[in-house]
Amino acid sequence: MAQIQFIQAGVDIPIFNASSRSLKTRLLRMATGGKLSADQSGHVVVTALQDLNFTLSDGDRVGLVGHNGAGKSTLLRVLSGVYHPVHGRVVLQGHVASLIDISLGIDHEATGRENIFLRGALLGLSKKEVAAKLDEIIDFSELGDFIDMPVRTYSSGMHLRLAFSVSTVIRPEILLMDEWLSVGDESFKHKAEARLAELVQATKILVIASHSKDLIMKTCNRVLWLEHGRIKMDGTPDAVYHALQQ
After folding, report:
1. Tens-digit pLDDT profile for the chain (246 aa)?
2. Among 2, 19, 53, 132, which residue's Cβ finds the most Cβ atoms within 10 Å?
3. pTM above 0.70, yes or no
4. What is the CATH superfamily name and number for domain 3-94+208-244?
5. What is the 3-state composition of the chain as percent helix, strand, coil, each rounded to the nearest 5?
6. What is the residue extent of each domain of the chain?
């Protein structure tokens, strides 16, 4: 069983080298939509998330919606362990994997084969687990002999195929996404879409941030509408998008 619990959870992000009276701060307020304050040291602090209370369980396919700076990406980063709540707490039960930046950890001087192990390690796979999936990853990437060439020799499409092939070999209980992954090569696109759909289907909890109404309506059974770091509404896609149009 997988579960996510946010209990009065909040995240503050300090902004260094910014005076509370500066133009930089005023621009920041406009850009983030977050609440600005100052800590005891006088540093500007953005309250990116505040008083979040919700529980996600097996079968939840959750879309995060809201304006730019509403807190969607910050929430995903909390779930992936990049940020930790400074108020309240977050309880995660289940293996979490993120497809937010599938190229994270790719070394351009290393070969494609070496990068499979590097990226696999970042995804939480042991060397033995990566080795067991190595042939599958190489076959899916369609890189052929290029797998033993440095990644700096790859085209952008080859780079994406390598990153996608490694990143989607996992089968996590909780999957995090920031928009739907799109791999550019037309010849690769259809099987990439099928693999991604299979991965989403297999995961117990999906959390995806997106500005696409069609994607959320098609993929999700629940939506969290974030505004200024708070949950404005938690409901079905139909109910939330109806409220958004009011």
Report:
1. 999 999 999 999 877 665 545 555 554 554 445 555 555 555 677 888 999 999 999 999 999 999 998 999 999 999 999 999 999 999 999 999 999 889 888 999 999 999 999 999 988 899 999 999 999 999 999 999 999 999 999 999 999 999 999 999 999 999 999 988 887 677 788 899 999 999 999 999 999 999 999 999 999 999 999 999 999 999 999 999 999 998
2. 2
3. yes
4. P-loop containing nucleotide triphosphate hydrolases (3.40.50.300)
5. 40, 30, 30
6. 3-94+208-244, 112-203
